[in-house]
Design a protein that fits this description.
About 55% of the residues lie in helices and about 10% in strands. By secondary structure, it is of the alpha/beta class. Strands 5-4-3-10-11 form a five-stranded parallel β-sheet, sandwiched between helices. Strands 6-7-8-9 form a four-stranded antiparallel β-sheet. Its cofactor is Zn(2+). This is Cysteine--tRNA ligase, cytoplasmic.
């Protein structure tokens, strides 16, 4: 500030102090105050400290006097600061099928991750092979979003136009028509015998051992059902109608295949081909919801993207990488591979020329001799297929037709995600030819060589060591699996294995998951019980002794180990083992404290339980807002069920303990036995475990299913007690 008094030498010092005091009385000059040159000059004009009656001037004088050494360069200064050396922080690496090695994950645009996942071909029930891919990708997606904090945009397709769908839709339609005609037992017998002839030829020509075994099982089942019907018809037995239905059921696959070969070309109504995938898509979504798999941000259906697919094919032709033949359009693999900057079969180059794989990729309806002869090379694949009689069709520049399988994903993903995505996911068996063909046609369309940056492929799923396949009729549906195990148990089984390796779905696998769940659940219940111990707000903060310091050190070491595991290709198997080890150490700490008759440290155990719960939420194994542990109750029940029921459990626990105390004092063994029945038989059936402690206290660990039975148990116990006392005991 600027001072406004007369600076002449004959002005008395007192007048200077008075004027200064008056000026400072309405100014702030201490809080956050830094001296100016005007302060220094005014300070020199004063002969000494102002009189005490000039309080503001006196405070200012003392403040400036204290700052003068700093103003003159004489103040003490802070010593130099040395930053810590620190340690290298692990960075996320993902196994990239394009390089067959773990690569540092670097999104193309900051924190945003564009992700496309190949969805199901919906023509039958979803099975555990689907669960293998979609649960695994759900786990990876959740970890990228919720742990590594990436902004993930997830797109998935539904294939509702495909050779398998077309054939299955026709077969179902023709079999329904066949049943509706109510053929006689003799007619069914004759038709099945006729259908067996081409089936036997197919069986004899099949060389794949798994497929041959499947066909042999079907042949045996049909033959077994034929004999009783033949006998019933010859003897005119009354059970011929029953035997007819048995044969019709056993031979439905064989019969529908024969009907399709005879009359499939007459099925021309497009709606017939849309009803089947629409139904199974609905069932798929229900299964994913039951498995707690997050829905995609964008879902694309092939039937809704036919115009985009046509445009996609046109541009590939314009770029010189395709050719038209008899109304179909094919991709020229040789020309693409010879072009500068392009390479065909990036994922599995050693599979080029594998005619079996290539024909499976083209589809059963697209590998006839006339279709194969349309290609310049057997390695070329269809972008657009001219529709034959009995197939759905859409208009195109090349005539009526339908999309090829591989082009569907390219056009849909390109429409939503653009010329390049960060992650493309799918099952291991899709690498060649499906994903290699996707890559080729997409890079031909966009004229780049980086349509996908990271290709992630989930491992196979086997059933007790045997290959699982829908086409081989060797599969377990998701609904069947959920009838035996919970969604959490299935997810834990997947978490306990590497997402990219083969997973064997067996009793041993599931038992390991169940035991892991029990181990973790027991820890959560114990921590909740400890936290229920009454204390005031200050009593929850307890002094840390050496045991707490050691457990906390281990806690942070385990968190670091979990982080390292997740950075290493999202290794959930190792992460879960580190979490298990942390719980083991926590259990040992609790046991040691109880052995010494000391209470465990509440805040430390609560922190550990919160961390583990958060990790399970990140993995998708816990839904809801429960702060600690697995939610109590069945699906759809309130997540607060435990907190709602626990007061009633405590009342029952206190009542039981009171009864036990009286029974012990009066030596009424029958009542003690009834108390044990409540603890050992009744409450466990309700999902509640009551534990008697040595000091006489009881703790209740609630996983309650039916609250009403708790009241019934309490009432029964009380009545028994009254009856015993009335009898004079």
């Amino acid at each position: 500030f600027i001072y406004s008094w007369d600076n002449t030498e004959d002005i008395e010092d007192a007048r200077r102090a008075e004027a200064l005091n008056e000026y400072l009385s309405c100014r702030s000059y201490l809080a956050g105050y830094g001296p100016t040159q005007a302060d220094a000059e005014a300070f020199k004009l004063l002969c000494g400290p102002p009189n005490q009656r000039h309080a503001h001037a006196l405070r200012w004088y003392r403040h400036i006097a204290a700052l003068l050494p700093q103003m003159n360069g004489q103040a003490r200064v802070q010593p130099p600061w040395s930053p810590p050396d620190g340690t290298e922080i692990p960075k996320l690496k993902l196994y990239n099928s394009l390089t067959r090695t773990k690569e540092l994950f670097v999104p193309q645009r900051g924190n945003r991750v564009l992700w496309y996942c190949c969805g199901p071909t919906v023509y039958d029930a979803s099975h555990m092979g689907h669960a293998r891919s979609y649960i695994s990708f759900d786990i990876l997606r959740r970890i990228l979003m919720n742990y590594f904090k990436y902004d993930v945009f997830y797109c998935m397709n539904i294939t509702d136009i495909d050779d398998k769908i077309i054939k299955r839709a026709r077969q179902n339609h023709l079999l329904v028509q066949y049943r509706a005609k109510k053929p006689s037992a003799s007619q069914i017998l004759q038709d099945v015998l006729t259908a067996k002839q081409p089936f036997q030829v197919k069986l004899a020509e099949t060389t794949d051992p798994d497929k041959k075994q499947m066909l042999e099982r079907l042949d045996t089942a049909v033959t077994t059902a034929l004999t009783p019907l033949q006998g019933a018809i010859q003897s005119k037995a009354p059970d011929a109608a029953i035997q007819k239905q048995v044969l019709l059921e056993e031979a439905k696959d064989l019969l529908s295949d024969w009907l399709d070969s005879q009359f499939g070309s007459q099925v021309t109504e497009n709606s017939i081909f849309s009803l089947l995938p629409k139904y199974w898509e609905g069932e798929y979504h229900k299964d994913m919801d039951a498995l707690n798999v997050l829905p995609a941000d964008v879902l694309t259906r092939v039937s809704e993207y036919v115009p985009e697919i046509v445009e996609f094919v046109k541009k590939i032709l314009d770029n010189g990488y395709g050719y038209e033949s008899n109304g179909s359009v094919y991709f020229d693999t040789a020309k693409f591979d010879a072009s500068s900057g392009h390479s065909y079969a990036k994922l599995v180059p050693e599979a080029v020329g594998d005619q079996k794989a290539l024909q499976e990729g083209e589809g059963d309806l697209s590998i006839s001799a006339d279709r194969l002869s349309e290609k310049h090379s057997q390695n070329d694949f269809a972008l657009w297929k001219a529709s034959k009689p009995g197939e759905p069709s859409w208009e195109s520049p090349w005539g009526k037709g339908r999309p090829g399988w591989h082009i569907e994903c390219s056009a849909m993903a390109g429409s939503i995600l653009g010329e390049s995505m960060d992650i493309h996911g799918g099952g291991f068996d899709l690498r060649f030819p499906h994903h290699d063909n996707e890559l080729a046609q997409s890079e031909a369309y966009f004229e780049n060589n980086h349509w996908v940056r990271y290709f992630l492929h989930t491992g196979h799923l086997t059933i007790a060591g045997c290959k699982m396949s829908k086409s081989l009729k060797n599969f377990i549906t998701i609904k069947d699996a959920l009838a035996k195990h919970t969604a959490r148990q299935l997810r834990l089984a997947f978490l306990m294995h590497s997402w990219k390796d083969t997973l064997d779905y067996s009793n041993n696998t599931m038992e390991s998951a169940i035991q892991y769940e029990k181990f973790m659940s027991e820890f959560f219940l114990n921590v909740k019980d400890i936290l229920r111990t009454p204390t005031d707000i200050t009593g929850q903060f307890e002094k840390w002794e050496a045991e707490e310091i050691e457990l906390n050190k281990s806690f942070y070491e385990k968190k670091e180990a979990v982080h390292e595991a997740l950075c290493d290709n999202i290794d959930t198997r190792s992460a879960l083992e580190e979490m298990r080890a942390l719980v083991s150490q926590s259990n040992a700490y609790v046991a040691a404290r109880k052995s010494a008759k000391l209470l465990p440290n509440r805040m430390l155990l609560q922190s550990i339980a919160h961390y583990l719960t958060d990790m399970f939420k990140t993995f998708g194994a816990i839904e809801g807002t429960e702060p600690i542990g697995f939610p109590v109750g069945n699906n759809g029940q309130s997540a607060d069920l435990e907190s709602t029921v626990m007061p009633y459990l405590n009342v029952l626990s206190d009542f039981r303990e009171g009864v036990r105390k009286i029974a012990r004092e009066q030596k009424v063994t029958e009542v003690l036995q009834l108390c044990d029945v409540v603890r050992d038989d009744i409450l466990p059936e309700l999902g509640v475990r009551l534990e008697d402690h040595e000091e006489g206290k009881e703790i209740s660990k609630g996983q309650t299913k039916k609250l009403r039975k708790l009241y019934e148990a309490q009432e029964k116990l009380y009545n028994e007690y009254l009856q015993t006392n009335q009898n004079g005991s």
